[in-house]
Write a structure and sequence with these properties.
single chain; alpha/beta; 3-stranded parallel β-sheet; two-stranded antiparallel ribbon; globular; DEAD/DEAH-box helicase domain-containing protein; ATP binding
């Protein structure tokens, strides 16, 4: 499988102490949760999210794209994510996985629009998966 590619909307500056500490924190948290080290690109994308950089990741199924938008939420309880997902089944699977990790998540699509949208309006969710 080819290596995933990530591009950043704004040019990243040289690593600051904060970024280095953030990379270590993401690595430590990932290893604690998943018992294996993250890929460098996963750490870079996680850092970009925390630093409010725009990010596009192109990677195949099973490459680990979910981790970069999940790890900042575990590091920073005040943050939240909106994920646009093309498949309702994938939305439901990811929302259930995040709920098991202690991150409140829901899917918002044609099947769940009114019920889960009320939760979004109240801002009691940390992750929203939309179709």
């Amino acid at each position: 499988m080819p290596s995933p590619k990530a591009s950043y909307g704004r040019r990243a500056k040289k690593h600051t102490r904060r970024q280095i500490r953030l990379g270590r924190d993401v690595t430590r948290l990932f290893e604690e949760r998943f018992k294996k080290p993250p890929y460098d690109w996963q750490i870079n994308v996680s850092e970009a999210f925390v630093l409010s950089l725009d990010v596009v990741v192109i990677a195949g199924t099973g490459a680990g794209k979910t981790m970069p938008f999940m790890m900042p939420l575990l590091l920073h309880p005040e943050k939240y994510s909106l994920v646009i997902s093309p498949l309702k089944v994938l939305q439901q699977d990811q929302a259930q996985r995040f709920e098991k990790m202690g991150l409140k998540a829901a899917t918002v699509n044609g099947d769940t629009y009114t019920r889960d949208l009320q939760k979004v309006r109240k801002m009691c969710l940390r992750l929203v998966f939309m179709y």
